[in-house]
UniProtKB/TrEMBL annotation:
Gene Ontology biological process terms in this record: intracellular signal transduction
EC number in record: 2.7.11.1
UniProt similarity note: Belongs to the protein kinase superfamily. CAMK Ser/Thr protein kinase family.
Keywords annotated in UniProt: ATP-binding, Kinase, Nucleotide-binding, Phosphoprotein, Serine/threonine-protein kinase, Transferase
Catalytic reaction(s) noted: L-seryl-[protein] + ATP = O-phospho-L-seryl-[protein] + ADP + H(+); L-threonyl-[protein] + ATP = O-phospho-L-threonyl-[protein] + ADP + H(+)
Keyword Transport recorded: no
Presence of the UniProt keyword Cell inner membrane in the record: no
Taxonomic lineage: Eukaryota, Metazoa, Spiralia, Lophotrochozoa, Annelida
InterPro entries attached to this UniProt entry: Kinase-like_dom_sf (IPR011009), MAPKAPK_C (IPR027442), Prot_kinase_dom (IPR000719), Protein_kinase_ATP_BS (IPR017441), Ser/Thr_kinase_AS (IPR008271)
Protein name (database record): non-specific serine/threonine protein kinase
Domain of life of the source: Eukaryota
EC supergroup of this enzyme: transferase
Binding site for ATP: 50
Domain Protein kinase, residue spans: 21-282
Amino acid sequence: MGEAHSKGWQPKTNSLSDDYKVLSKVLGLGINGKVVECISRSSGQVYALKVLKDSPKARREVELHCRASGCEYIVNIIDVYENTISGQKCLLLVMECMSGGELFNRIQEHSDSPFTEREAADIVYQICMALDFLHSNDIAHRDLKPENLLYTSHKPDAKLKLTDFGFAKVTNAHKSLQTPCYTPYYVAPEVLGPEKYDKSCDMWSLGVITYILICGYPPFYSDHGQPISPGMKKRIRNGKYEFPKEEWSRVSKDAKDLIKGLLITEPDKRLTIKEVMHHNWVAQHTLVPPTPLVSVQVLKEDKANWVDVQDEMTNALATMRVDYEQAPIKRLDESKNPILEKRKKKQVAPK
């Protein structure tokens, strides 16, 4: 265990290359930086290295990820270095290498036997273990999506872990989140506008992921294949989704009830992580019926479209995420817009 696990994380200032050999293989692209392979010079162990340009936002990501590393269902940070690269001060995160790949890529490789509802429940249970740890420590992840859920290996007993804390934030009863960071298809309805939202948006994303695990496609979709459309926004706001008979007829009532409790438009009525942990489908996940699902078949048939969806989400991130801490929204009553001024006068004018 490296220094990264201490409560007040302290980066090492010696050169990372003293302790690790950096390889050129790119493992993935996170929100704030790319992830490559590196090897420990002392043990020969392979790790993942994420390079972040040093900034308050990057330091928040590192601090929250370090705080979360105590959970076995969250990607572990081994070491943190503070180095200068090409004249730029950077933070270098050495993390455990998740060689098993992303959640849905692994499911698409499922070929030995049918993917079952019990397996889906086990996956949701593992995601819930990560969320329960975060929410119990007043941390909201805010970017819960399949690409951020990785397997430790390709072995049958591989563990699923949550990663990428680029949009994670501390939240509690006195400080709800106000920054609309979201990814289409997994976005909670209250995040589509400037309303306050908190850990409940993670629960909405959990509901969408659960839905896809069972049938292979998302509950909300764009009419024209765009990342997010007015029509899709309306469906999300109204909680408009269905359980089509063809794919859902054999799925247990518990699974549908869980999804219904997660895809509720009002955040305060949505299931909390504690309620989900006590829900039959999660708490008794090993007893869920091993009913064969169509999700793998649907994902394989629609593989090209699934890749497009992931690309669209990645490309949309920069333009769709507005940080109100950096770009505050002017209050309407403070605006000097001439049309609003005219409307205000009209409203107070004597009848």
